[in-house]
Design a protein that fits this description.
With about 110 residues, this protein is mainly alpha-helical. Helices cover about 95% and strands about 0% of the residues. α1 runs antiparallel to α2.
Length: about 110
């Protein structure tokens, strides 16, 4: 049926366009926001650790306070690395694989 074939082609083309112009940029923006937030938190925890370290040296805070903040710093470092990896995976692998698959669907529909 010609109408069904034309519909399959159009839907495959729309899926490709939706990914290229909608889903991919949105995913990239979401992950970039995640990286930005993680880096801001990392900077904040770095400054906080330095401040608490000085307070510990002066006797105003105890070592447990510093260790707790250092754990927060380690968590923040992990979140930055994780978000950057997620962005790299999207750009290096997910994008290429999905584009190849969607382009193949368009070609097969024709």
């Amino acid at each position: 049926d010609i109408a069904a074939a034309q519909l399959r082609i159009r839907l495959a083309e729309l899926d490709l366009e939706k990914f290229e112009k909608g889903e991919l940029p949105q995913q990239r923006a979401d992950i970039r926001a995640e990286v930005f937030t993680a880096e801001a938190n990392l900077m904040r925890f770095t400054e906080s650790c330095n401040f608490i370290r000085r307070l510990v040296q002066k006797g105003y805070k105890n070592q447990n306070d510093l260790e707790a903040e250092e754990q927060n710093l380690k968590d923040a470092e992990f979140k930055v690395a994780s978000a950057k990896t997620k962005l790299d995976v999207l750009d290096s692998y997910t994008k290429e694989r999905t584009l190849a698959e969607l382009k193949a669907n368009v070609t097969e529909s024709k």
